[in-house]
Design brief:
mainly beta, binds copper (II) ion, about 45% strand, about 15% helix, Immunoglobulin-like, 1 helix, globular, 4-stranded antiparallel β-sheet, about 130 residues
């Protein structure tokens, strides 16, 4: 009986939270482009977030950018950085510091009104 009540209560909580969270279930789409800066291995990344379904710009999201090298598991420890909102709606900027050039998996974590993680495979090369 107690278990049944607990189950009912948890069902209720789930229903309420999905009804009130306006962005529940939003799938984010991210465009990421990173440019080499004057400092070696430091890249300036521009991120554009939109709702994958409607295409609407995702504003007011807490964005964190991290990176890993799929070919070298556990070899790197790049500290994730917080992105700052850009001037256009849905745009964000972050400066990441890598440990070597090559192919990285850039991880864009969204928190706040929209929760999602987007992973992009990107190649980083020295500034030409
Ligand atoms: Cu590496």
């Amino acid at each position: 009986m107690i278990a049944a009540r607990a189950l009912l209560l948890s069902l209720f909580v789930v229903t309420v939270s999905s009804a009130s969270g306006w962005a529940a279930g939003v799938k984010a789409k991210a465009e990421v482009s990173c440019a080499a800066t004057a400092k070696p291995l430091e890249y300036d990344c521009a991120i554009k977030l939109s709702d994958a379904r409607s295409g609407a710009a995702l504003t007011g999201v807490e964005v964190t950018v991290g990176a890993d090298m799929p070919s070298m598991p556990m070899a790197h420890n790049v500290k994730p950085v917080k992105a700052t909102p850009g001037s256009e709606p849905g745009t964000y900027r972050a400066q990441i510091k890598l440990e070597m050039h090559g192919d990285w998996a850039v991880k864009v974590d969204l928190a706040g009104p929209v929760r999602d993680r987007i992973v992009k495979s990107m190649r980083f090369e020295p500034k030409p």
